[in-house]
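Let's practice the habit of predicting before peeking. Look at the sequence and jot down your guess about where helices and strands might fall. Then scroll down.
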Amino acid sequence: MRWSRLLIPTLRDDPAEAEIASHRLMLRAGLIRRVTAGIYEWLPLGRRAVAKVEAIVREEMDRKGGLEVGLPIVQPAELWRETGRWAEYGEEMWRLKDRHGREYCLGPTHEEIITDLVRATVSSYRQLPLLLYQIQNKYRDEIRPRFGVMRAREFVMKDAYSFDVDAEGLERSYRAMDDAYRRIFSRCGLVFRVVAADPGAIGGSGTHEFMALADYGEALIVYCDACGYAANVEKATNRLAPPAEEPPRPLEKRPTPGVRTIAQLAEAEGIPPARQIKILFYWAIYEGREPQLVAALVRGDRELNEVKLKNAMGALAVRMADRAEVLEVAGVPTGSAGPVGLEGVPVLADEEVMALRNTVCGANEEGYHYFNVNPGRDFTPDRVTDLRLVGPGDACPECGAPMASARGIEVGQIFKLWTKYSEALHCTFKDAEGRERPMVMGCYGIGVTRTVAAVIEQHHDERGIIWPMSVAPFHAVVVPVNYAEADQREAAERIYSALQEAGVEAVLDDRDERPGVKFNDADLVGFPLRVTVGPRSLAEGKVEIVDRATGQADPVPVEQAAAEVARRVRAALDELNRRDGSLGKR
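Done guessing? Here is the structure:
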């Protein structure tokens, strides 16, 4: 391809809207163009990168026996109502009506529609196991689209679904997809961790996320290098310390004027936050019934994990109650509230709270706190569960070693759905004895466009993108310093033609531009290899091959240049096919 025939609208300056490297560079290098918030046009270079990721995904899915299908983007509400997710999915779902008033959605995911397909076409155990996948656009009405295609309203995903006869079959499918995902992301050049995660609106139990590590990743993960434990903070837990060994002291109610926060109490009374009880009031939101006010207790030095609270309450969502709502419903002031004597609302306590001895909490009266509070003696919560947000330094739940943390970009997630959808949608098969049983399902998603952005987050420098060979829009660019000069033009054309014959995806920069502009654009776009045809090297019968990742420039005879580039391309692809980019233990 000749640069003069390509559409590559590069930008010299960083767009004001771009917050992170991938967003900034995708706009500057002409991969994408913003249409409106969260919606982007994919230009030729960007589309080629997406196609490279899609090709890798297809190869690895087909290797595991996957069958590609095409499912509708527009889905009828009736299917989503059968599973209860029409209300459960919330405002992120794009909902619409046709001219007859029938309700539909733009598919954010395809569990319902794929299960409907299988229940209509598969009826016997002889047709199982089955693995179906598709690659297509998805739609989510993000409240705050940001980071370019990382959190967009329209995006490309690969979603796969397995159907098995029993739990053992699901486990085999799950392991096969875990292996396929590790190969996919390794081949894309990513460094990633596989972490335990919360299933969210997809449901089921048992799920793992594939997190590409990045300084500006939107998710926080904790991990243990000693044993390999890793989890998204929404799911992560830690090993509990043993309860303090000190005799309980008599409960006291003391005046604490002007003290309304954990920090103020620590300063006024010298009691560290880890020895205080923090109480937080939330509304648990449900479908078809009124919200319920709930009190959640965590240790004073902890943050509440809202995902864990939502799951504990079996709610669609939770939101923090304001001071007026708490006063109206529970009759207590939030700055001085506590679990002792609290009535009218269910109380959920984190496990660490129950291990406290002679602790402090609000007395449910403005300007007063209880001291020497002992859980179990002075109050009994309605439920004890894990509600805390875990962080670096906490003890690993599996081996007890201190954990570390990192930020990551979720590029894939795999789920064990079990029979959540097959039972709701009556997707059954007859076993060898003729008994009707629900199929056991799994689902497996990859954010294709998000993966492209994650690759750029991990592979860039101050000059631009540094593409891994496997997902680069083009493998190489041939840059004559002055295309108007006959000897440079003829040498560049010969090398370009030879590269095409060798199967190398190459661009010939035939523009009438200054050398500095050409070199800057080549670095910005991120071609893995650049062949520079200049007057001085050409006078010696040579050209320079420049490696974008290392900056190494090697003089090579003109006649050998195309073969050397082709050799480097093959070597880079072979290395990516062999590498394992996953961190931690399997």
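How did you do? Residues 159 and 445 are 4 Å apart (CA to CA).
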